[in-house]
Every structure is written in C-alpha cells, then in structure tokens.
Amino acid sequence: MRQISLISKKTRITIELSDIAASLSLYHMLPVSSQASLWGKEIYFPIPRISVSGAVLTEQVEIGDVGFWPEGNCFCVFFGRTPMSTSERPVPASGVVLLGRVDDGLASLSDIPAGAGVELHAVNV
C-alpha cells in the first residue's frame, strides 16, 4: 500500500491509500500545495483533478476516512461531525470517492485552522 503525508505548519498526518485507480492517480500527481477549508470536522482543499473513472461515489464515511469530492474537486479528510451529521459519524456534502484512511495523526487534524497552508506528499517507504 502507498502512504502519503498531509502536512501543515505544526501537523503531519500519515494516510494509507487504498488500492484503487483514483488513489494511484492522486499519488502520482504529488506533491500538491493548497489552503485548508473546514466544514465541521472535515478538512477539505482543492487539488488538481484526479481520474475517478469507474470509481464508486459514497456518502457513507467514517472518522478517519480520506476522500476525493468530485463536485468540488477537493481532497477531504473526515475527523468528526459535519453540518449534515445526525450522529457522531461524518456525512459529506455529497458523494465522495474513498481514497484511504488516516494511519497516524488523526487527533492533530483539529489543530489545522481554515486558511492554513497544507501540502500532500508521497511517503517513501
């Protein structure tokens, strides 16, 4: 499995990518720099478009899931309730392609403020 890092000023999160074409497309375009936005306990930010051909969109996500939101062309990390949640489980604004899960650093996601610079990098394993 491939790993990537989400890095902000004081935060580094390790993400384990799933073995699907969309994850591979993301991995091969790295590094990417952007600015974080928050939607409840979801961090999302625009990235260059990745190939999601044949990928399944879902609104069923769990805390720690990482996805690509095609409607907004954004990378997203779910770490708690979102404005659409009716329980502790996050609910995306609309369907996302699940790319993987946070492997390490989930608790530190709340330290990333809106507008913070964020980067995605491939991890050399």
Helix content class:
under 10%
| Count of runs of 4 or more consecutive helical residues | 1
- Strand order in the sheet with the most strands: 3-9-1-2-8-6-7-5-4
**From N to C, what is the helix and strand string?**
EEHEEEEEEE
Cα(first) to Cα(last) distance is 10 Å
The pLDDT mean sits at 95
Q: How does this model look, in words?
A:
- By secondary structure, the protein is mainly beta.
- It has one helix and nine strands, in the order ββαβββββββ.
- A nine-stranded antiparallel β-sheet has the order 3-9-1-2-8-6-7-5-4, with helices on one face.
- A hairpin with a 4-residue loop joins strand 6 and strand 7.
- The model has no long low-confidence stretch (mean pLDDT 95).
Summary tags:
38% strand, 9 strands, nine-stranded antiparallel β-sheet, globular, 1 helix, mainly beta, 7% helix, 125 residues
How do the helices and strands line up, and which of them pair or pack?
Layout lengths: L2 E6 L2 E7 L3 H9 L2 E4 L1 E2 L3 E5 L18 E5 L4 E5 L18 E8 L12 E6 L3
Antiparallel strand pairs: 1-2, 1-9, 2-8, 3-9, 4-5, 5-7, 6-7, 6-8
